[in-house]
Structure to design on (579 residues):
């Protein structure tokens, strides 16, 4: 499944939050969104997810305009892991993950063993199987984040959108989430803060003040000139002797 | 099923439950049990419709409160606190007193229009003041509800003062506090219809209601057409509230407290929460009515007084727990 944004723009109180964003993500590709705070990453994800109608431009799913699709149809193709979605309900982890099956159920297609299988698999993939029966309020921040990802996976999407999913996670779970996301084989758009994590994406889109500054492979995009211009840092690249990959270190300008 | 019968048995003159059965059988199947005609009359024309309306009212208000709490992500949402009941009262009084037609149906239609006007006002005010699922936003919604309630209660008083005769005014003031005396079988059918609409609508949307657990955006990303679902559910529950208010007056705290009790018992899945809330609401209000009839000998208290005596402390507990959770 192909997700396409064409010349997207969004304004808030007369100010452009996003302007002229065009990008495409295909099956098996991981597109990273990077940029300083307030550069429009979250807004772009919400437009791509169909939660907000763009003021300008269009979002296409497999060539079809998303604005004309029913919400349920979008949710069967695409899942979103937003930042900090919280609840005060007394809800078990399994029930929270089971919410991911919502777009596939209705009065004539009730919950079945297949839905249970999706939920079990999603819980295992994020390494939460042992906490399935725990109450949501007893989870740590990192466990909640992983449960949100499991909920999105239970949706069985062909496109997955994630808004800074590695926030709150310890380093082992940060890496395991990135590895999991890269191995899904579906189209992924992921907003990231850590530029060294972003190096693992297939392509990167760099946002600044709502404008697309660069779009391409991480090696090409994250060059010292761009890092200085967009992030205001001086970067030096090192080579990791373990696998020969490039690592960035940052210094104040 | 047993609750309305027990409710019919209890009162200033207790009637054995077996007699209630017999009276019922006489009336429905012509069974011909030897029941005192006075008992027969009390049960069939007075206590049974009263218990049934109380039960329907409790169930309807509990479902309305539950749906509002879920959709607004607000533990304190309730048709009474959000001013919907006050708006319904204003609409009903406007019809009853200002003579826009005193026949029964127009009164409930007046209540419905009042309820919707009140909800629109409160929702608009909450939006303007930044009401939302955050802790501060939740407080804003309740504050907007207080403003709306005050406004509509003032309008009601104004209409009564301007247009009602002294005797009318006394009757209306009693009714405003929640009053079940004088309900007839006509009221039973109307209340049952209102509750059925609210119950069926809520049951049809149980999965959508579940999906609101993590907020409206999360519900939308799970494929719930948020605006449509909110519109249908709020319309259905406001309509049920309005019809019930037009029969019994505004009864507070049922819609607030009962869903919390139900959540405590069966968790937060709406497939169980909706029917259990309806059931607890029904039993609670029938019991409250029995207490209202029996607490002061020779006198019937407004049922709203009893629900408030139970509900206000429960409200305080919910308030404290909501504060410590966030």
């Amino acid at each position: 499944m192909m997700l396409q944004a064409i010349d997207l723009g969004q304004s808030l109180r007369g100010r452009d939050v996003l302007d002229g964003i065009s990008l495409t993500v295909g099956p098996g590709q991981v597109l990273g969104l990077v940029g300083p705070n307030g550069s429009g990453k979250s807004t772009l994800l919400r437009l791509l997810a169909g939660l907000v109608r763009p003021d300008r431009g269009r979002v296409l799913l497999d060539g079809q305009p998303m604005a004309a699709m029913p919400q349920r149809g979008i949710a069967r193709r695409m899942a979103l892991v937003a930042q900090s979605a919280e609840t005060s309900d007394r809800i078990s982890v399994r029930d929270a993950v089971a919410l991911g099956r919502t777009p596939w159920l209705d009065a004539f297609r009730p919950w079945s063993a297949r839905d249970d299988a999706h939920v079990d698999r999603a819980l295992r993939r994020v390494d939460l199987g042992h906490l399935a029966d725990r109450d949501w309020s007893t989870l740590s921040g990192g466990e909640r984040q992983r449960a949100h990802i499991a909920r999105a996976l239970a949706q069985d999407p062909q496109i997955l959108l994630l808004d800074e999913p590695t926030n709150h996670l310890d380093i082992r779970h940060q890496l395991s989430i990135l590895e999991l996301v890269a191995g899904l084989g579906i189209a992924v758009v992921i907003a990231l803060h850590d530029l060294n994590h972003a190096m693992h994406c297939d392509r990167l889109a760099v946002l600044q003040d709502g404008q697309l500054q660069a779009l391409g492979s991480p090696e090409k995009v994250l060059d010292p000139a761009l890092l200085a211009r967009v992030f205001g840092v001086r970067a030096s690249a090192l080579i990791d002797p373990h696998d020969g990959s490039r690592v960035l270190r940052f210094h104040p300008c | 099923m047993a609750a309305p019968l027990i409710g019919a048995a209890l009162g200033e003159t207790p009637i054995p439950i077996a007699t209630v059965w017999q009276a019922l059988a006489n009336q429905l199947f012509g069974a011909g049990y030897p029941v005192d005609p006075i008992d027969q009359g009390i049960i069939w024309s007075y206590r049974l419709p009263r218990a049934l309306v109380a039960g329907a009212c409790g169930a309807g208000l509990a479902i309305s409160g539950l749906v509002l709490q879920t959709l607004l992500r607000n533990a304190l949402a309730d048709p009474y606190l959000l001013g919907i009941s006050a708006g319904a009262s204003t609409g009903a009084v406007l019809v009853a007193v200002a003579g826009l037609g005193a026949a029964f149906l127009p009164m409930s239609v007046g209540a419905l229009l009042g309820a919707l006007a009140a909800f629109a006002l409160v929702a608009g005010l909450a939006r303007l003041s930044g009401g939302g699922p955050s802790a501060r936003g939740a407080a804003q919604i309740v504050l907007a509800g207080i403003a709306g309630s005050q406004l509509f209660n003032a309008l009601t008083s104004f209409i009564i003062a301007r247009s009602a005769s002294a005797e009318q005014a006394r009757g209306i003031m009693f009714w405003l506090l929640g009053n079940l005396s004088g309900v007839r079988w006509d009221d039973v059918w109307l209340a049952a219809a209102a509750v059925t609409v609210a119950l069926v609508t809520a049951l049809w949307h149980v999965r959508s209601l579940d999906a609101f657990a993590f907020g409206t955006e999360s519900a939308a990303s799970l494929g719930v057409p948020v605006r449509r679902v909110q519109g249908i559910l709020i319309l259905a529950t406001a309509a049920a509230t309005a019809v019930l208010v037009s029969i019994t007056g505004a009864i507070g705290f049922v819609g607030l407290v009962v869903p919390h009790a139900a959540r405590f018992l069966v968790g937060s899945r709406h497939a169980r929460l909706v029917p259990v809330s309806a059931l607890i609401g029904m039993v609670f209000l029938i019991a409250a009515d029995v207490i209202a009839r029996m607490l002061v000998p020779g006198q019937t208290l407004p049922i709203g007084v009893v629900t408030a005596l139970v509900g206000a402390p429960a409200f305080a507990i919910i308030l404290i727990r909501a504060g410590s959770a966030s």
Q: What stands out?
A: Residues 124 and 144 of chain B are 9 Å apart (CA to CA). The radius of gyration of chain B is 20 Å. Chain B has 14 helices and no strands.
